[in-house]
Amino acid sequence: DTIVSLEDVSKTFSNGTVALNGLDLDVQAGEFLSVLGPSGCGKSTALRIIAGLAEPSSGSVRWPQEQTNQREHELSFVFQEPTLMPWATVFENVWLPLRLARVSRASARDRVLEALEMVGLGQSADGYPRELSGGMKMRVSIARALVTRPNVLLMDEPFAALDEITRFKLNNDLLRIWKAFGLTVVFVTHSVFESVFLSERVAVMQSRPGCVTDQIEIDPSIV
Ligand code: ADP
Ligand code: ADP
Question: What keywords is this UniProt entry annotated with (predicted)?
Fold first, then answer.
């Protein structure tokens, strides 16, 4: 089943920059799709359009399941910067999306701790961001994205700033989380290795001004 479908999507910013030019992209429900392409080819713009954070200049974004069974999708977004609140504990950082939805600390407790367990930080709830390594900060950011129990997780080069070993561990953990949750993941990266490691299907975006995708099916036996 297609969960979201971008058809002939173009985006020109008000300064005249053409970020996307006729992009076609289907994301299947439950898949882990990597979107691979060089810097500046429009990957972030495409992801932000999927998230509803930016409007396409032309073309369509459709969520077919919402049209047929009125199913509302719950989206979460993970950026390259973990953007944690430094004055708040790890627990409070992960609680934030629920707090904004008026869920009290006590009622949020189990879900926050469950999300922290999921990323291997069950013991760090009372710590502060400054006490954490870059990889652990990213784990907190992922826990904050999971705490609302999304069915679609959008990730924009989340691990690009991390060292290779930390990144590899996070890649493995992310695959485990994806399988455990039955999530749909759209993962933007400019790393060929990362995209092939994570996904059986990689959408390759070409550098501007093309921005057309090829879809590569990865044979799992080569990874
Ligand atoms: P939109 O038309 O979709 O609202 P804008 O063109 O108004 O987007 O740009 C939004 C903001 O991003 C502006 O403040 C703009 O200056 C800034 N911006 C300009 N160039 C870039 C760029 N290359 N990358 C990121 N942000 C940019
Ligand atoms: P990628 O994620 O593949 O690196 P982006 O989607 O961030 O690419 O950017 C695509 C192109 O659009 C780039 O040339 C970038 O500088 C430009 N761009 C991105 N955001 C804005 C903006 N708000 N205003 C103007 N130009 C932008």
Answer: ATP-binding, Hydrolase, Nucleotide-binding, Transport
Name the region of 22 (left: φ>0; alpha: ψ -120 to 50; beta: rest).
Answer: left
Q: Best of 9, 13, 50 to mutate for ligand 2, by most ligand atoms within 8 A of CB?
A: 13
Ligand 1 binding pocket includes 54 (Cβ within 6 Å): yes
What is the value of ipTM here, to two decimals? 0.67
Whole-angstrom distance, CA of residue 138 vs CA of residue 119: 9
Q: What angle do CA 36, 39, 41 make, to 5 degrees?
A: 70
**Ligand 2, atom 5, residue with closest C-alpha:** 42
Instruction: Provide φ and ψ at 214, rounded to 5°.
Output: -105, 150
Q: Could you tell me the mean pLDDT of each successive run of 10 residues in the chain, 223 residues long?
A: 94 92 93 92 94 95 80 88 96 97 96 96 96 96 96 96 94 96 94 93 77 58 54
Ligand number, closest to the Cα atom of 47: 2
Pick the residue whose CA is nearest to atom 14 on ligand 2: 40
Helices marked H in the chain: 43-51, 64-69, 90-100, 105-118, 134-146, 164-181, 192-198
Residue 162 contacts residue 134 (beta carbons within 8 Å): yes
Q: Two tokens at 62?
A: 């459709």
Tokens 């994205």 sit on residue: 145
